[in-house]
Write a structure and sequence with these properties.
CATH class of chain A: Alpha Beta
Distance between the termini of chain A: 36 Å
Order of helices and strands of chain A: EHEHEHEHHEEEEEHEHEHEHEHH
Oligomer: heterodimer
Number of helices of chain B: 16
Shape of chain A: globular
Number of domains of chain A: 1
Largest sheet of chain B: 8 strands, parallel, barrel
CATH class of the largest domain in chain B: Alpha Beta
Chain lengths: 402, 494
């Protein structure tokens, strides 16, 4: 049972999570403009949400989860999520900014300094969601390695998917570890500006990270001073034992996908099991557990379901998701969230089915409803994203104990 | 040499191009001055960029360094350090500016085309067409130790890789034509079938698939390069749209300018298709005398006694900490084989020759170590009253020495305030600097041609394709000197 009110995040992706959502937009060509994203994140901040996540991938969207398709009637194309988050940083003041970052094909050093820079640019509101490359076709965009090709058979079960991708998860653990070391590689007081000795830096307070892993090594130190949060928030999405362990090793927040109230307990038990297996002490290093839901919200009973059906018809298929699909009124969603929260979840990442409609319904209808029930903040408290999530300011692993 | 009017986009002839840089390394930044504050605060990047925009500059520029420099086996402590990831910080800068170009240095050695092309296209989308890319290369294992790729790339290969990298990036940008994104709810078509399809099979890159970022406002970001060698000049003439140079003495600058512009015709390009912008510094005060005194003060602050010895050690390749910076040069000989300063390209090559030159200069003029390092550093470029500086800047451009300048601010973030507040209005009065922006894209500001929206191309065969498309044949002949020139020009390490 939780005594803290639930955290609330939204997952922004294209025109929304329904593949036909763009067809309800007034100007769907604006998906790649700054104004579109600035408006969305301003709305999320108006709703006092904890953070927004920004989806990303190093390959095009597809109706098939494991291979490219040739559909022309769905949103195809995207912007780099870290740059998008950085652009949004000066336009916002409180909301956390959490881009998805591929860790299979990218350079860990660039990723780490990019997130550190996002934390500086947002003054302590950065997080990231490290993501492995689950689509083998994306590897050809880089031409440096191949990655496992999922089969239709694998898709039946998240455990089969995770098993096939296990080497990529192991490497992702290393990427997160390197990022965390690089963020600590400058002690907070490394910059001394000592005119007597002519020294801007105290080199003793900068540290080589000397990481050597199975697939890469990084010498360090970072080129970027320690980010304001010390350690920007790390979040990951998990549906199976291997990704639960990944989260247990390196994440501060894990997004899970229970199917219903009963399943919440089962999923959280699996997360707890993974935490125990990797020997994580959650008193020192809390792991916040957020449930995912794709949401279609309308005030009038039945309207949201009808809207989804209409979008399904436009798309030609019934939209399904790895997360629970909710269609209903904001009041009904508030009921569900508080019920699930009571089962032990720390918060929720809601995926708006269609933008901007379902985001507005979250910020202007759901949030006031939760607030009426004493279950959501009435103003942002000062502080970093870590502070908001109740994550302690981490000690620098390289600083001497005192 | 006659200046060619850059009459494109309705701009009057002889517009001076201006860029502002926030230096992230080297001894340009006078950190000992209390007016110099954080090197990493977003507010300082925003402040300097807005100053540049107020001064109607063309773009804001960040250089790159992917490993902290080390001296005598330890982190180099004397200069400012601690910089952002360029593209990420420039995305934030784009949010707080409306017209100013944002130019990122991004290394072609420790990156891959798909990701870089996508990130630059993203910056171009978010900024509404203001992105530029300064293409640099690196080969050293020292920097490579921070990367998966490591430092295995042969030195001779890195320019071949850079040229193919750039050609590949262009193929990716061109893989979406403007019309490929229809986003038409009525017909239900979002994108053309096959939009973003690409295939590049070359020596350095063998990649294929779908590019995921639709065509950005500029189509292709502006390409910047720095190079002084024969091969570097040829690369600039064939592929770059802005060249940074280190030449701020008018005679040298004119020779470089004439030479590089003279190469353009061979590639079917006009003189105004490539802009030459030397790195420069500027010191403004009420009178020439006051400015001269302030310039001396800045230069001495940039070359502290410790910095003087460190620079000498970098050239000599041996520990000289026992020597007096205010005394004569050491009597010991250099050890050109030992490398004292790593991650710093300026003193990487030709150190024996540099040491001979420095010793001769010191003996001829009776200079101390510190005086020598100040002397060879060149001091400040434009020094004087607002009118004197405006005259000198205008004269330099009018005389065919440059199309404009990259001004590095010696104070972060206020180092260009005096120039913008006091010199810019004089340049505007003369009609050589815009009073207001007349367009929205960086290409427009610079009077550059729009990138061709050619639509989807079929797969290329890599170097042979892009070589023939530009008429260039010497991509692999690029030598190591560009990095030195680039570093000198931008005041940065590789």
């Amino acid at each position: 049972m939780n005594d803290r009110p639930p955290h609330l995040a939204v997952a922004l992706d294209g025109a929304g999570w329904h593949p036909a959502a763009w067809r309800d937009q007034e100007a769907p060509g604006a998906l790649f403009t700054a104004a579109y994203w600035a408006d969305l994140v301003a709305e999320a901040e108006r709703g006092l949400l904890d953070f927004v996540t920004l989806e990303d991938a190093l390959g095009p969207q597809s109706a098939a989860p494991h291979r490219p398709d040739d559909r022309t009637d769905q949103v195809r194309g995207s912007l780099d999520a870290v740059l998008l988050a950085a652009f949004l940083a000066p336009l916002t003041r409180h909301i956390g900014l959490v881009p998805t970052v591929n860790v299979t094909h990218t350079e860990p050093f660039h990723v780490a300094v990019g997130i550190a820079t996002l934390d500086h640019a947002s003054k302590g509101r950065a997080g990231w969601r490290p993501q492995i490359a689950s689509r083998a076709a994306d590897a050809a965009h880089f031409g440096r390695r191949t990655t496992p090709q999922l089969t239709d058979d694998d898709l039946r079960d998240p455990e089969l998917i995770a098993a096939r991708l296990r080497p990529l998860f192991a490497e992702a653990v290393d990427v997160v570890e390197v990022a965390r070391r690089l963020w600590d590689s400058w002690e907070d007081d490394a910059e001394i500006r000592d005119t007597a000795t002519g020294r801007f830096l105290d080199g003793a307070k900068l540290h080589h990270v000397d990481f050597e892993g199975a697939r890469f090594s990084v010498k360090g130190p970072s080129i970027t001073p320690r980010p304001p949060q010390g350690q920007p928030m790390v979040a990951s999405l998990a549906h199976a034992s291997t990704p639960y362990e990944f989260a247990a090793r390196g994440s501060d927040v894990v997004f899970v996908t229970p199917a219903d109230r009963v399943d919440v307990g089962a999923v959280l038990a699996q997360v707890d099991g993974a935490v125990a297996r990797v020997g994580r002490n959650v008193r020192d290093r809390p792991l916040r557990r957020f449930a995912e839901a794709v949401v279609f919200l309308d005030d009038e009973p039945g309207a949201a379901a009808r809207r989804k059906e209409r979008l399904d018809a436009l798309d030609g298929t019934e939209y399904t998701s790895d997360a629970v699909l909710f269609t209903g009124t904001p009041g009904e969603l508030a009921d569900l969230l508080l019920d699930w929260h009571a089962a032990g979840l720390d918060g929720f990442r809601l995926r708006p089915g269609a933008l901007p409609h379902d985001l507005g319904a979250i910020t202007r209808r759901l949030v006031p409803e939760l607030r009426r029930r004493g279950a959501f903040r009435t103003a942002y408290a000062p502080g970093t994203l870590r502070d908001r999530l109740g994550l302690p300011h981490p000690r620098n692993r390289y600083a001497p104990e005192d | 040499m006659t200046r060619t009017p850059s009459g494109r986009n309705g701009q009057s002839p002889r517009q001076i191009r201006l860029a502002a840089q926030l230096p992230g390394v080297h001894n340009v930044t006078v950190w000992s001055d209390p007016r110099s504050t954080s090197q990493i605060s977003v507010d300082n990047f925003a402040r300097l960029a807005r100053t540049a925009e107020r001064g109607r500059f063309d773009f804001f520029f960040l250089a790159e360094g992917l490993r902290l420099r080390e001296h005598k086996g330890a982190i180099y402590e004397l200069d400012v350090a601690g910089r952002p990831e360029n593209l990420t910080m420039l995305a934030a800068v784009a949010a707080v500016t409306t017209h100013l170009g944002v130019a990122a240095t991004v290394n072609a050695t420790f990156n891959e085309p798909y990701e870089v092309a996508r990130r630059l296209a993203t910056l171009d989308h978010l900024s509404g067409g203001r992105a530029a890319w300064n293409v640099v290369t690196s080969h050293d294992a020292f920097t490579g130790a921070n990367f998966r790729r490591g430092g295995f790339l042969a030195e001779a290969d890195r320019y071949g890789r850079a040229a193919e990298f750039l050609a590949t990036a262009r193929e990716l940008w061109d893989s979406w034509a403007r019309r490929d994104l229809s986003a038409d709810p009525v017909s239900g078509r979002f994108a053309r079938a096959g939009a973003g399809a690409f295939a590049h099979h070359g020596r350095h890159f063998d990649i294929s698939g779908r590019f995921t970022t639709p065509r950005s406002p500029q189509g292709r970001p502006v390409i910047i390069q720095a190079g002084e060698s024969e091969a570097g000049r040829e690369f600039a003439a064939s592929d770059a749209e802005v060249v940074f140079s280190k030449y701020h003495r008018l005679d040298e600058a004119r020779a470089f300018y004439r030479d590089v512009k003279g190469r353009l015709a061979r590639y079917g390009r006009a003189p105004e298709d490539l802009l030459i912008m030397p790195a420069a510094s500027v010191v403004v005060a009420d009178t020439d005398a006051e400015a001269a005194a302030y310039a001396d003060e800045i230069t001495r602050a940039q070359v502290s006694p410790q910095t003087a010895i460190a620079h000498l050690e970098a050239v000599w390749g041996r520990d000289l900490s026992a020597y007096d910076p205010d005394g004569p040069l050491p009597d010991v000989e250099p050890e050109p084989e030992s490398q004292f300063l790593r991650g710093h390209s300026v003193f990487r090559k030709g150190r024996a020759e540099t040491a001979r030159r420095w010793r001769a200069l010191a003996e001829e003029r009776g200079l101390s170590v510190r005086e020598l390092v100040i002397e060879v550093g060149g001091g400040q470029t434009f020094v004087g009253s607002p009118r004197t500086v405006a005259d000198a800047v205008d004269h330099f451009v009018r005389s065919g020495g440059a199309d404009g300048f990259v001004f590095a601010a010696h104070l972060t973030p206020g180092g260009l305030d005096d120039f913008v507040d006091r010199v810019v209005p004089l340049l505007q009065e003369r009609g050589v600097l815009r009073r207001d922006y007349t367009g929205t894209t960086l290409r427009h500001h610079l009077g550059l041609r729009p990138a061709p929206d050619t639509g989807r191309r079929t797969g290329s065969t890599g170097e042979s394709e892009h070589t023939s498309s530009t008429g260039r044949t010497g991509a692999d002949k690029h030598t190591s000197h560009e990095a030195t020139a680039a570093a000198a020009a931008t005041g940065e390490s590789s």
